[in-house]
Design a protein that fits this description.
52% of the residues lie in helices and 13% in strands. It has 133 residues and is α/β, with parallel strands linked by helices. The chain has a single domain, classed as 5'-nuclease (Rossmann fold, 3-Layer(aba) Sandwich). Helix 3 runs antiparallel to helix 4, helix 3 packs antiparallel against helix 6 (96-107) and helix 5 (74-89) crosses helix 6 (96-107). 28% of the residues are buried.
Length: 133
């Protein structure tokens, strides 16, 4: 069973029960699902901004147990730095959070399942999968 990296937007659709999550089911089924440490941080920020109570935060914790959470390491830091520099030299930008998610996928040779493919298109070596509209 292959592992895929799920972007913050797609996992948030799943958590919220958003109807857009249905379009991603075929891309997720039959795979082990992984999250970048950055996605986990973004989800906790999302919960804090929305002032979730203890019950909803516990549900988030429980949901995250269904994913392999990939931490940073030196090689990932190198990839992140190179990716950000490459974008800067080319006159493009990639948000630091998106660069961490891309670096996670590149470091571990994982396809990235995302709803926001344009955020990552500038990284030619990244395998991007998105649902068809």
């Amino acid at each position: 069973m292959a592992t895929v990296l799920v972007d913050t937007d797609v996992v948030s659709f799943l958590i919220k029960g958003d109807s857009r999550s249905l379009a991603y089911a075929p891309l997720l089924q039959g795979h082990s699902l992984a999250l970048s440490f950055m996605t986990v941080a973004e989800l906790y920020q999302w919960a804090a901004v929305r002032k979730w109570g203890a019950r909803r935060r516990a549900q988030l914790d429980q949901t995250l147990n269904n994913y392999l959470v990939i931490p940073e390491d030196i090689d990932m830091c190198r990839i992140w730095g190179e990716l950000r520099a490459e974008q800067q030299v080319a006159g493009r930008t990639i948000a630091p959070q998106d660069a961490w998610i891309a670096a996670t996928a590149l470091r571990h040779n994982l396809a990235l399942i995302t709803h926001n493919a344009d955020d990552y298109r500038s990284s030619a070596s990244l395998e991007i999968c998105t649902a068809r509209p």
